[in-house]
Design brief:
TIM Barrel, four-stranded mixed sheet
Length: 392
């Protein structure tokens, strides 16, 4: 069991519901367990008696509310001070990323190192304070200073990489694109789309096949013709996306019948690919197949669907380029959705199965209350993107 004392935060009933809070294990991956607010603190009961971290949304001062985490902590009856442990993780993360990015030199780190030193000073003051109320105030100030230091370090690292990337040669002609809603008016949106490099045209199943067996391509045709006329590269898809906002209602019975699901999905993909294979530059094969957000697939079924999409697009036009889109990179869903894979587990399985794709798309959405869309700071974004460096 883990207990966290909180004295000045979570004062209203909404905050005490702990929306989005979850437990983490090794490699910052969610683990099963129960959390609840009880008597001025947070009580966590992990399913396994191992070191566990708490991840939850808290007030981070001027940065607003952020999803933050503690370090891995030994389970015990004695309570931890929540903000002290959140600050400890940020101080630790600064050290780890500074060493990884080779930015611990004061001449390079600059102001971020000063903010980190200030965070560490406040952290020590909080640890030595016997008054719990004052200790929490020092700990929160330490957390805010640590967040500021991490944010500045992430910006510095990004700036150095951009200069290194574009210092020797200019950017390609497909750096900035826009995703359009096929239902939107070209007269209103067309001028903006013309000045950007790439046009991303979704292929929502609900829009294209609202009734089983009846395909409507009018909206799609308008944007495909516009992109071809303006000579914009087109990224079309995702061909496979199984969330409530994309699937037509008549697909609900297939939720528990994989054979029916595959047959209908392949028929849909076949119609779309055959119609637009001559104009699409790159196909988005699937988005969030690993997350089991609405339909629940086993990893073998995920591979089967992805393989079918990959083979279909390449058969339609030799040399067709494809990408896989990953969602929910912070993996908030893994412990609560049966069969769900992390993005890295999904990529590893694709590699093992020899399924062809040319690129990986990474979708990041922030500002929501569900589905891994809680606000994160730049250091968290940088750290999760760094994990993809292990994949070639």
């Amino acid at each position: 069991m883990l207990r966290f004392d909180v004295h000045h935060e979570f004062t209203n009933a909404s905050e005490q519901r702990l929306y989005g809070a979850h437990l983490l294990g090794r490699d910052d991956l969610p683990v099963a367990g129960q959390l609840k607010w009880k008597s001025g603190g947070i009580r966590c009961e992990p399913a396994e008696p191992t070191a566990t971290a708490l991840c939850l949304e808290v007030d981070a001062g001027a940065m607003g509310r952020l999803m933050l985490q503690t370090c891995l902590l030994k389970q015990r009856d004695e309570p931890y001070l929540l903000f002290l442990e959140l600050a400890r993780h940020r101080i630790k993360q600064y050290i780890a990323k500074s060493e990884e990015w080779q930015l611990f030199d004061p001449t390079l780190a600059g102001e971020s190192l000063k903010r980190w030193e200030h965070a560490r000073t406040l952290f020590v003051r909080s640890m030595n304070e016997v008054d719990f109320d004052k200790a929490e105030i020092y700990a929160k100030d330490s957390l805010i200073a640590g967040l500021d230091a991490n944010e500045q370090l992430a910006l510095l690292h990004a700036e150095l990489l951009v200069k290194r990337r574009f210092g020797m040669k200019p950017s390609t002609s497909t750096v900035i694109g826009v995703r359009v809603d096929p239902r939107s008016d070209i007269k209103v949106c067309g001028d903006t789309a013309k000045i950007l490099d790439v046009l991303m045209v979704p292929t929502p199943w609900k829009l294209i096949e609202p009734t089983k067996g009846e395909f409507r391509f009018q909206e799609m045709d308008r944007w495909m013709a516009f992109a071809a006329q303006t000579k914009r590269p087109i990224v079309a898809g995702p061909l496979l996306r199984f969330d409530k906002n994309t699937l037509p209602p008549w697909m609900e019975p297939a939720k528990k019948d994989f054979s029916m699901c595959v047959d209908r999905a392949y028929t849909f993909m076949e119609h779309v690919v055959q119609r637009y294979s001559g104009v699409v530059t790159m196909w988005n094969l699937g988005s969030g197949l690993h997350s089991n957000e609405h339909f629940e697939f086993t990893d073998e079924q995920m591979m089967d669907l992805t393989r079918r999409a990959s083979v279909l697009t390449r058969q339609s036009r030799p040399g067709a380029r494809t990408l896989i889109e990953l969602t929910e990179l912070f993996c908030d869903h893994v412990s609560s959705r049966p069969g769900a894979l992390t993005p890295w587990q999904y990529l590893e399985r694709l590699s093992q199965e020899g399924i062809h794709f040319d690129a990986v798309g990474i979708q990041m959405c922030f500002g929501g209350a569900t589905g891994g869309t809680a606000m994160r700071d730049l250091m968290q974004v940088s750290a999760v993107l760094d994990r993809f460096l292990a994949f070639d």
